[in-house]
């Protein structure tokens, strides 16, 4: 299905134009197109055009797409389902408001995690997480009082081979990720460590890089990951349960998983300046991985924090304008 993978990638790049090129891929008339908050679900090409594509075209002059990772494979969670997944940036000069965010009149990179279900040359289902808090940060209006890690542009893979990879064992890459996810659920409440994650036989490379969304930021090595993400997250949500994935695919040295939502949890510790109140929450998640020599070398993470914070009683978009 590698040919279909390339066709989908070309279609998505063309789709941003007002007059996209005709080709072997199109959007099904009943395609369900779901995007992170505050966008509502959309169905069919007309709603997708009006609710997703047109706002992007108006907001960004010179709008174009840059894929950092683009993979496609059969979905282990969906019999006979072929899916594509991407880490992408929507790039241009941010010159007009976008979903309540005031423009910067400067270059901006709107990062996106994307999953596409493709059947018979038609995109029949789409889920996208846009890191709108990071777009606010780029425009000089950070929606959070601080970040746990480094706020930076998401880089592409260190090996520069993430777009339609030609080498590697996709099933083996996904096996590594699934093994890691299985062990990650159990953790020491003092050290926040989990068995099997690090060390000679661990799932993560010693020099792992973890790239997180606005508010969390990015970090280096397992110790940095624990300090800048895992410890504060588990302090706030110690009963979190994850793994509720609708899609898991592996392609070459890459794997991607997503849940909508993936996590359920209760808010038991303060987080990013918000006081805990015990309420029940859910979290939409997308993870992209690069594996090397049987271990995870890099991890790109998208979390729908606009939706999560709305559940916590905080409107991130209204707070920053």
Automatic annotation (TrEMBL):
Origin superkingdom: Bacteria
Biological process terms in GO annotation: polyketide metabolic process
Protein name (record): SnoaL-like polyketide cyclase
Natural source organism: Paracoccus sediminis
């Amino acid at each position: 299905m590698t040919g279909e993978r390339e066709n989908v990638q070309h279609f998505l790049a063309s789709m941003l134009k007002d007059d996209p090129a005709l080709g072997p891929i199109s959007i099904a008339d009943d395609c369900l197109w779901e995007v992170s908050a505050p966008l509502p679900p959309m169905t069919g090409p007309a709603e997708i055009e009006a609710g997703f594509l047109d706002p992007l075209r108006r907001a960004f002059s010179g709008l174009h797409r840059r894929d950092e990772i683009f993979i496609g494979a059969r979905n282990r969670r969906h019999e006979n389902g072929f899916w594509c997944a991407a880490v992408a940036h929507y790039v241009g000069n941010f010159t007009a408001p976008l979903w309540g965010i005031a423009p910067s009149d400067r270059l901006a990179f709107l990062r996106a995690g994307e999953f596409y279900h493709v059947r018979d040359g038609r995109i029949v289902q789409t889920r996208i997480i846009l890191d709108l808090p990071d777009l606010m940060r780029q425009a000089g209006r950070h929606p959070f009082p601080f970040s746990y890690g480094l706020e930076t542009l998401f880089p592409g893979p260190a090996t520069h081979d993430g777009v339609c990879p030609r080498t590697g064992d996709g099933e083996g890459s996904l096996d590594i990720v699934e093994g890691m996810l299985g062990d990650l659920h159990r953790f020491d409440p003092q050290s926040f460590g989990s068995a099997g994650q690090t060390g000679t036989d661990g799932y993560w490379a010693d020099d792992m890089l973890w790239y997180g969304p606005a508010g969390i930021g990015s970090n280096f090595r397992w110790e940095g990951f624990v300090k800048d993400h895992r410890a504060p997250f588990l302090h706030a949500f110690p009963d979190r349960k994850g793994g509720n994935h609708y899609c898991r695919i592996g392609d070459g040295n890459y794997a991607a998983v997503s849940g909508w939502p993936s996590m359920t949890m209760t808010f038991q510790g303060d987080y990013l300046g918000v006081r805990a109140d015990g309420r029940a929450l859910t979290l939409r998640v997308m993870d992209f991985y690069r594996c090397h020599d049987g271990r995870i070398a890099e991890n790109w993470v998208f979390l729908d924090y606009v939706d999560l914070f709305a559940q916590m009683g905080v409107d991130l978009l209204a707070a920053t304008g």
